[in-house]
Design goal:
The chain folds into two domains: about 5-190 and about 310-414, Aminopeptidase (3-Layer(aba) Sandwich); about 190-305, Alpha-Beta Plaits, CATH 3.30.70. The relative contact order is 0.19. The chain has helices at about 5-25, 30-45, 110-125, 150-155, 160, 215-235, 270-290, 315-325, 345-350, 390-410; strands at about 50-55, 55-65, 70-75, 95, 100-105, 130-140, 165-175, 180, 185-190, 190-200, 205, 240-250, 255, 260-270, 300-305, 310, 330-335, 355-365, 410-414. It has about 425 residues and is of the alpha+beta class. Strand 4 (about 95) and strand 5 form a beta hairpin. It is elongated. It has ten helices and 19 strands. The longest helix is centred in the C-terminal third of the chain and has 21 residues, at about 270-290. The protein binds zinc ion (ZN) (2 copies). The site of one zinc ion (ZN) has 5 residues, from loops.
Length: about 425
């Protein structure tokens, strides 16, 4: 495809923005530098900018005559992951997490792609403002990674401070071929519940286990037994995932600890399945504690609940039609419902707006034509991998075009 000088110049600028954001990732609710960069660029484009909504959130509003209000959303935060992409602009950043521990930080989920694409779309929409009327709200939320950034913006009076949108549009880069977009009407992404569970034993000397209640042994049984919930208690036609992502217990071979901590992620696509799984997790943990003769009952901390992401049927049809019309050479697929989770629907629910959320591909090694979302090639690194490295220029080009195309579907041509 031939590009104009303008398009080439914008692509080069966005690539520089992306490399800078990628090299300087920040953890949830610490996105001060990123928020400042985003706000400065929006102001330069003529957006009315508000900062510090929900701690580090940024919103730019472009009012351009009468017509629908369209909200475009990106997320600001990186992850505590040590980058191993080998890229010349790889992150070497370290920071303190919410618990005070020093951790490496990486844009391992691709939120730097989302930020750059939204800045690109904000620019294209500002440049073409003589062609449309309506209002564009470019929203950059903090802390998407399981920390509730969207809800924090809503609680901070987001929709008293910016116009209430008719539609909320957002996207996520995925391990799919670049030039592929995945979108689905209805239930799209899962409920996510994160539990921190503390089980209590009685510590002591490793040589005298009979004088202790071994919290390590107890926790190990919990881990194994929890995997029976999905296989033995949930119907094959229902979907659920129970993952123990972290198990923390003890420090030395010769000391049995007093406690063990498990951090559990539960994903479901149906409220009644969700309730069954959560109840089963609690039952299994309590029963294993009883089986070990734990001196105290376990403690449960429900640290995060993300709602299901449900795309509005009518609005999704409009977005799919806009992509088919505007994105020549891009393959649009239906990925089915997935067990990933997002907090973007906190925004659409609070605004009473329709939601359309989709995935964009970011990788060149796989041919788009034969790609099957449910069976990705093993060599494609998933989001949160230390090797997650989208093909920057083409991915940003695609994501800028998808956001612009979807937004223009609502903005009134003139
Ligand atoms: Zn993520
Ligand atoms: Zn993400």
């Amino acid at each position: 495809m031939d590009r104009t000088d303008d398009e080439r110049a914008l692509a080069a600028q966005l690539l520089a923005v992306y490399r800078d954001l990628h090299a300087h990732p920040e953890l949830a609710f610490q996105e001060v530098r990123t928020a400042t960069k985003v706000a400065d660029r929006l102001r330069a484009l003529g957006y009315a900018v508000q900062t510090h909504i929900g701690k580090t959130g940024v919103v730019g509003v472009l009012e351009n005559g009468s017509g629908p209000v369209v909200l475009l959303r990106a997320d600001l935060d990186g992850l505590p992951v040590l980058e191993r992409t080998g890229l010349p602009y790889a992150s070497t950043v370290r920071a303190r997490d919410a618990s005070g521990a020093e951790v490496p930080v990486m844009h391992a989920c691709g939120h730097d792609v989302h930020l750059t694409c939204l800045l690109g779309a904000a620019e294209l929409l500002a440049r073409s403002r003589q062609d449309w009327s309506g209002t564009v709200v470019a929203l950059f939320q903090p802390a998407e990674e399981a920390a509730g950034g969207a809800a924090a913006m809503v609680a901070d009076g987001l929709f008293e401070r910016v116009p209430r949108p008719e539609v909320v549009l957002g996207q996520h880069v995925m391990p799919m071929p670049v030039e592929t977009v995945a979108v689905r009407a209805g239930p799209f992404m899962a409920f996510s519940d994160r539990l921190r569970i503390v089980v209590h034993g009685r510590g002591g000397h490793a040589s005298r286990p009979e004088t202790t209640v071994d919290a390590v042994h107890l926790a190990a049984h919990v881990v194994v037994r929890l995997q029976g919930i999905v296989t033995r208690e949930i119907a094959a036609h229902d979907a659920a995932v129970v993952t123990v992502g972290s198990l923390i217990a003890g420090a030395k071979a010769n000391i049995l600890p007093d406690t063990a901590e498990l951090n559990v992620s539960v994903r479901t696509l149906d409220e009644s399945v969700r309730e069954s799984v959560l109840a089963a997790v609690e039952r299994v943990v309590r029963a294993e504690c009883a089986a070990s003769a734990a001196p105290r009952p376990p403690e449960f901390f429900h640290e995060q609940r993300y709602p299901m992401t449900v795309n509005d049927a009518g609005a999704t049809e409009r977005v799919a039609a806009a992509f088919a019309r505007d994105l020549a050479g891009v393959r649009v697929i239906d990925p089915g419902s997935v067990m990933l989770s997002e907090d973007v629907s906190e925004l659409s629910s609070a605004a009473g707006a329709a939601l359309v959320y989709w995935f964009i591909g970011g990788f060149e090694s796989v041919p788009a034509r034969s790609f099957d979302f449910r069976r990705p090639p093993a060599e494609l690194p998933s989001n949160h991998s230390p090797r997650f490295a989208p093909a920057a220029e083409r991915t940003i080009g695609l994501g800028t075009r998808t956001l612009t195309s979807a937004a223009r579907e609502w903005l009134v041509p003139r």
